[in-house]
Amino acid sequence: MDIQLNDIVKLKKPHPCGSYQWRVLRTGIDFRLRCTVCGHEVMIPREKLEKKIRRILRGDTEINPNKQ
Fold it and tell me: Which InterPro entries does this one have (predicted)?
């Protein structure tokens, strides 16, 4: 799955603040994500993140990783 820095990933389940969208701050084996609403940052392993992603927003384009 092609996830790049500053992409916005939309996850299947919401954060407790209500947001589904997270900005990618770091890529690799682990990802660092920041909630777009409250600013909370988390580190999550690649395997777990790839299962939780519903959409990837990159600029003006929206990527659906499940249909590739």
Answer: DUF951 (IPR009296)
Distance CA 10, CA 36 (A): 10
Q: Kindly indicate the confidence band of residue 68, based on its pLDDT and cuts at 50, 70 and 90.
A: low
- With contact defined as beta carbons under 8 Å apart, do 34 and 25 qualify? yes
Q: How many domains does the chain have?
A: 1
Establish if 63 belongs to a structural domain: no
pLDDT tens for residues 23-35? Answer: 999 999 999 999 9
pTM above 0.85, yes or no: yes
* Domain containing residue 36: CATH number: 2.30.30
